[in-house]
Amino acid sequence: MIRHITKAIVLLTIAVAGVSCARGEAIKPDEPADVDATRAFEGENLVEQARVYTAGERIYYLTDGDISTYLKGKNLYAIIEFGGIVSIDRIFITNVVNWLGGRVEIKLDGKEVGGRFFSTNSMEWVLQGTNADLLEIRLKGDNTAIGEIAVTGEYIKRYPWSAEKGEKYNLTERQVGSITISGAEASKGNYSKAIDLNLKLLEEDPRNPYANMNLGQIYIDMRRMTEAESEYVEYLSEGIKRLENADIAENPERKKLMEYLASLYKTELLGEEKSSEYHRKALEIEEAENPDRITVGEVRNWAGIAGSLANQGKFDEEMEYKEKIYQWVKENEVSPNDGTLGWALFRYSVRLRGREMYEKAYEVAKLVYEKFPNTEEARDGSLHLQLGITAMALSRWEEAIDAWKGSINMTAYKANARLLLIAYCYYKLGLTEKMEKYFYLAQPPEEAEFWREFHNVVRTELNSKYPDRKYKNNIEFIEAKEEITKNILSKYGYFPVDKNEIVTKISLSAREYLIQYNIEIE
């Protein structure tokens, strides 16, 4: 049983942004000790006692058990969760380094509080009993750093969970029952009852991640049930707020929650920066859980971050992440159905092509074709299109022919342009007979008034000549029409065509097709 603590102090030591202000060794969480607040406010380094106990009892919880988790990059922050509601009297920070317009920001339960400089390199916040359960320290701008932070206050209420490092939030049997019932009520559309059940759980403990996640999902679901735009926005906003309230280190489902929030911010067009932020949080959790290897979960979060960066116009940063994805996929087994990674690499190939990096664009597209054959890009012909375009840009005519034939096998709709591209590739290879063959198979031209009649006649005669023939793919069916096509073209005066004229026509067609992708050919 945790007994009431009247007064206590927290002391942390932090080194940030390349400016080392901390002294002593790393945090040692298993060494309880009483701490003298007066000594701490005088700036004495108590880093070895940063995991503070008073009378043998822990008085705060530091998210993820390691403050360095949060200190990566420029605008950095640390989060202290007290494991209950604390009436805070005073916050004091020493060794403040504040260059180039940077500043230190303190928030209690998400609300910023103002402080003042106590001396040339120390800051003080006198709060006189402000209640909070969450303290955030954020360092804004470059070259901002802090050394030690001390907090005094007293507990008003403790939450029903222990703050031991790595321990997850546990529900009581009664709470599990309430959570289960609320889910069942929500699935039946009894949203009011489901909401009430979760609100009662939050009255007992506002930090309950399961109740917050339940509420969040209920409001997200409710937005789909209304046609009023104002209600849609209201439900969505409340849902996201509740889900974000569940973002605590003890939440066993925190990684999935971060990925879900990232997806919501992206799909609802609420902000790519927030989407990227939650992907990064999920990535940190995945890295902490698997310190010795890179998992597919990490790589999928790279893809999410890359997508958000692209939508923000940060294409260089996007490509850095996608190059990491490409290198990882090359060396690891992946699911052939993984649309997340398949799409990310497909878009990487397109981006490379846009930068005229055709060799790498082709390599990436080829990898997608080999590793993700069951994804939408591979099935709808988009990947073959990319392979065909980049192969032609590289003058790899045989590979381009394979790609265009593969594209037609995926969909024969409006295949004429691709048949002419195949004809052009055969021309570049010096295979005149095949050039002519695919030129005629691409006929009649779309501007001919009789084109619909032409196709109906071809199909009828083909079915009459080969009534029982089964075709393996679209290309085989098209090639089977060669003789009949030439006969009908001859009947209407479209056959034969002078070889020089054929070359002129297919060259013009190929140039017009590729110029839309900023690719020029002879």
Summary, kept brief:
This protein is an alpha+beta fold and 522 residues long.
As a whole number of angstroms, the C-alpha radius of gyration is 33 Å
The number of distinct structural domains comes to 4
How many strands in all? 12
Q: Which term fits the overall shape?
A: elongated
| Share in helix | 40-55%
Strand content: 5-15%
End-to-end Cα distance, whole Å, is 83 Å
Largest sheet: 8 strands, antiparallel
Number of helical runs?
20
Overall CATH architecture of the largest domain: Sandwich
> What name does the CATH topology of the largest domain carry?
Jelly Rolls
| CATH C-level category of the largest domain | Mainly Beta
Low-confidence stretches: 1-76, 161-166
Q: From the helix content, strand content and strand pairing, which structural class follows?
A: alpha+beta
Describe the model.
There is one protein chain. The protein has 522 residues and is an alpha+beta fold. It has four domains: 8-158, Jelly Rolls (Sandwich); 168-248, Serine Threonine Protein Phosphatase 5, Tetratricopeptide repeat (Alpha Horseshoe), CATH 1.25.40.10; 253-379, Tetratricopeptide repeat domain (Serine Threonine Protein Phosphatase 5, Tetratricopeptide repeat, Alpha Horseshoe); 400-515, no CATH class. 50% of the residues lie in helices and 15% in strands. The protein has 20 helices and twelve strands. It has helices at residues 37-41, 173-187, 191-204, 209-223, 229-245, 254-267, 272-289, 296-311, 315-331, 339-354, 358-371, 376-379, 382-393, 397-410, 416-428, 432-441, 451-465, 474-480, 482-491, 499-515; strands spanning 8-13, 53-54, 57-58, 61-62, 76-93, 97-98, 103-108, 111-113, 116-119, 122-140, 144-145, 148-158. A hairpin with a 2-residue loop joins strand 7 (103-108) and strand 8. The protein is elongated, with a radius of gyration of 33 Å. It starts with 7 loop residues before the first strand and ends in a 7-residue tail after the last helix.
